[in-house]
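Support request, priority: normal
Reporter: lab tech (M.K.)
Component: structure prediction queue

Hi team, I submitted a job for mRNA cap-binding protein from Raphanus sativus yesterday, and the status page still shows it as pending. I've pasted the exact input below so you can check whether something in the sequence is tripping the parser. The sequence length should be 248 residues. Please let me know if I need to resubmit or if it's stuck on your end.
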Amino acid sequence: MAVEASSLSAIMAEEENLDPNTTNLIRFEKHLPVIRAIRGGEEGPSKEQKIACGGNGYVWKKSKPTTVIQRSHAFQRSWTFWFDNPSSKSYQATWGSSLRTLYTFATIEEFWSLYNNMHPPTKWVHGSDLYCFKREIEPKWEDPVCANGGKWTMMFPKATLESSWLNTLLALVGEQFEHGDEICGAVLNFRMRGDKICVWTKNAANEEAQLSIGKQWKELLGCNEIVGFIFHEDAKTLDRNAKPRYTV
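Reply from support: The job had stalled in the queue. We restarted it manually and it finished. Here are the results:
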């Protein structure tokens, strides 16, 4: 991670002295780094920014952001939230044409600022998709980085959807995966048939890396079900008939 051990110690010391009424802090857990030390962030996107980046009314809350910690702790890389507007899907000429970038963030504070200003997953509209991908990667099969990749998929009930999505995000941006360079990002799909979270990867043929990512993700979320990995190439040609090539 870009956040050094000395910074971690300093933040942990701060946590004991901060007023809990002005900052929303979450205790540390063994699988999550300093990101959990700071729950808050700078003021969220303005009304104009929300409208300009799309997804207004689906994505953003109207409530006032929480009080902030005026510090900045950089991630190892920048990440971008994307949104696929369900009202546009029936009119799009090609898949992905309704995708919109919401915001790119590079620090812990920016992440919490954005996350805290989004509606919780239980409030989202069926048919919508929320992505969090490395900044240089678009969440499309056609993206050169994604073209030869695939995805791990888990289904979730409403009761655990929000916590599972948040823990997945924290593991991604906190560089918790052993083969993190293989990861493109994650997507939260809201569907009538059941909500799901997918982790996209770069090189589907790298079985060792894919199995490692799948096992770590299951352990992180405490999943006891069998989870499958589908190659994007299979999904493109076979659609819903595509079968997992790897399982954990």
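Residues 115 and 166 are 9 Å apart (CA to CA). Confidence is low (pLDDT under 50) at residues 1-34, 48-56, 64-69. Let us know if anything else looks off. Ticket resolved.
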